[in-house]
Amino acid sequence: MRSNPMHPHSATRADACPATPVRTLACIATCVAASAAACPPALAQSPASSWPTKPVRIVVGFPPAGATDVAARVLGTRLAELTGQSFLIDNRPGAASNIGAEAVARAVPDGYTVLMGSISLAINPSLYAKLAYDPQKDLLPVSQVASTPFLLVVNPSVRATTVMELIALAKSRPGELNYASAGSGSGAHLFSEMFRSMAGIDIVHVPYKGAAPAIQDVVAGQVPMQFDNILSLLPMVKAGKLRALAVTTARRSPVAPEVPTIAESGLPGYDANAWFGLFATAGTPAEIVRAMHAATVKALQDPGVRERMLALGADPVGSTPEAFAQFFRSELAKWAKVVKAAGARVD
What contacts 62, CB < 8 A, 6 or more positions away? Predict the structure, then answer.
């Protein structure tokens, strides 16, 4: 695997609200979350509950407008309505979410600083030579929030309308095609590396500081292709800004049934699924974890939340802390094998 950290756009930063579709989504999401924090509760908090009694920070390790951020805002909006407390989104991008994860790992274990984790959390321990935290020891799984496929997209100027055409193009120009990702160690990075390895092609990694700036450069034609979450990319596809070639899961997505899977497009066996989940700081009292889990499940069962999640391409989950912990362990093992096979490493 080769990386191109000196690419002129690899340090692009998402500004507050310039007029692009991706950043407009960030502004809308921010406004929704802010208004929800001011809304009166739709359901009074149980007197027996010890959480929350003050505002809660949901840390997101990526910039606004990325899939993890959107999922956190949808969940946080409903949690604010249910509990009567503010749920504030704290974006701490960088190092494939390690900065945000470490902040939660080092937080006071009282349930008022939590992490909206993603698949990156399962990838990073194998990818990074050193981590300042241990996700299994320093973070406590509360509930898996949702699962969702990634899309493989290209700029419309790329002369490839299918997966096999893209592979043929890459083979005809080894080392010339770049792919954008949300950062080294992100799901986008490893999904791309699995694709590169299985397809036997030579493409170059261009890491960004989050999904939003990566998408912007693919839309602008600065980078020809990328993998990223369907939540982030589908609006760009529907607007004609990007061309979708395939989804990463074994089955087609209900929100984009016309888009084939990578497996059916010529790479049998390719199957990768992204996810989001809520984590507390290790040492958080069990009764707070139970209250947090109960509120999360209640929020995810809300018809409005489910409708919004499904419309974005995400499947709400709401698993128990025990089930989520078991799932997280399986993800750590799965992606350790992918990282080893790809030879990927970040010092």
Answer: 68, 69, 91, 93, 97, 100, 118, 182, 210, 211
pTM score: 0.76
* Domain regions of the chain by residue span: 21-147+274-342, 150-247
pLDDT in tens, 38-69: 444 444 444 335 799 999 999 999 889 888 99
User: Rounded CA gap, 318 and 161, in Å?
Assistant: 37
Q: Are 193 and 225 in contact (CB under 8 A)?
A: no
Distance CA 209, CA 212 (A): 8
**Is 53 within 8 Å of 4 (Cβ atoms)?**
no
> In the CATH scheme, what is the homologous superfamily, with its name and number, of domain 150-247?
Periplasmic binding protein-like II (3.40.190.10)
Q: At the fourth CATH level, which superfamily is domain 21-147+274-342?
A: Bordetella uptake gene, domain 1 (3.40.190.150)
Distance CA 272, CA 118 (A): 13
